[in-house]
Write a structure and sequence with these properties.
The chain has 115 residues and is an alpha+beta fold. The chain has 2 helices and 7 strands. The termini are far apart. It comes from Flavobacterium seoulense.
Amino acid sequence: MGTFVISKRFSGDYKFEFTSRKGKTIFTSNAYELRMDCEADAEYLRTVFESCSFVKFKTSKGKFFFRVVIEGRVVAVSRKYSTELMVQKGIDEIVKYGAKAEILDFANNDFEFID
C-alpha cells in the first residue's frame, strides 16, 4: 500500500509525496504555504485518482516523468524514470493503491540528532 507523506521544505512551504509500498517516492506535490491546504489536496487527490490524468514527458537527457493533472491543474510531478515502462508501472501503482493510501504528517517533527 502506498502512503502520502506530508513534510516541510527548507523554504518553509509544505509538500506531500506519494511513496510506494517499498518506500520509494513516486511523485512530489507543488509547494503549499499552509499545511491545511497541503493536507486537503492530499486527501482530495486520494479520492480522485481514478479520474485524474497522468501526462507523460521525456527530458532532453532521455529520462521519463509524468505530471498528475486534476481539472486542468498540475498537482504533482513524478520522479525521473529511466524507461517509459517504469513510468507506466509508477502510474499503475498509484491507481491501484492510491485510494487506500494513508496520510502521514511529518511537517511538525523537528528531528534532532545528538552527537
